[in-house]
Amino acid sequence: MEPSLEARTDSSSCSREPLIRVPLANNGALTEHVGRDVARASSRRYEVILHGVLYDRDELYRELASPEPHDGNEAALVLAAVARWGPDAPQHIRGDFFYLIKDRLVGSITLVRDQLGIHPCFYATTATQLLISTSCPALVSQPGVSRELNRLALADHLRYRWPDPEETYFEAVRRVPRGSLVCFHNGGQTVSRYWNVAPIDVRERGN
User: Fold this and answer.
1) Structural domain spans, the chain
2) In CATH, which superfamily holds the domain spanning 25-193?
3) What share of the chain is helix, strand, coil (3-state, %, to 5)?
């Protein structure tokens, strides 16, 4: 019995998923991508790859005081937000997406998932590359990525427990939690949350 579609490795379905290959070494090598609906933009310092759609674009353009590009490239809008707000840029961007920022000056790669976690975002690393996709099968079909199943995650799933939101059914594949980002720098990686749902006070006034 298959635990989930997440664990399938059908090559025909993998070919339709986006796959982004990012060199881990800061040596000027270019990021590669395959699949549909992948946008990119770059400046002297940053490279941005976006998959998905942005909401409230007009509001974001007003905040940035930036004219909309003629080609409607939303990756260019993310790039402008990163240049303006730096590490705080994810808090200003809403939509159904993931995007990565390669900072050539610092030598870091940051992978960001949308605030509500609408857009799937999985990643795996090899000795030389960071691989990103919306599906686990697309990642485990790549050379250098193990297909070994994560038996503890499978056992947790069967008991309706999900103690680690980053786990998947594959040992080598991780999930970016909603409203979170993963930073890769100097051979290490850190996961941090940039957005939380604001608590609502439902108490009546005077109680």
Assistant:
1) 25-193
2) Aminohydrolase, N-terminal nucleophile (Ntn) domain (3.60.20.10)
3) 25, 30, 45
pLDDT digits (tens, 9 = 90+) for 157-185: 788 877 888 999 999 999 999 999 999 99
pTM, whole model, 2 decimals?
Answer: 0.84
Within a 13 Å sphere around the CA of 26, how many CA atoms are in the beta-carbon half? 16
205's tokens: 């006034």
pLDDT tens sequence across 79-129: 999 999 999 999 999 999 999 999 999 999 999 999 999 999 999 999 999
Half-sphere exposure of residue 5, counting CA atoms within 13 Å on the CB side? 4
CA dihedral angle for residue 81, residue 87, residue 145, residue 22, rounded to 10 degrees: 50
Place of tokens 């009546």: 204
The residue among 174, 179, 183, 190 whose CA lies nearest residue 110 is 183
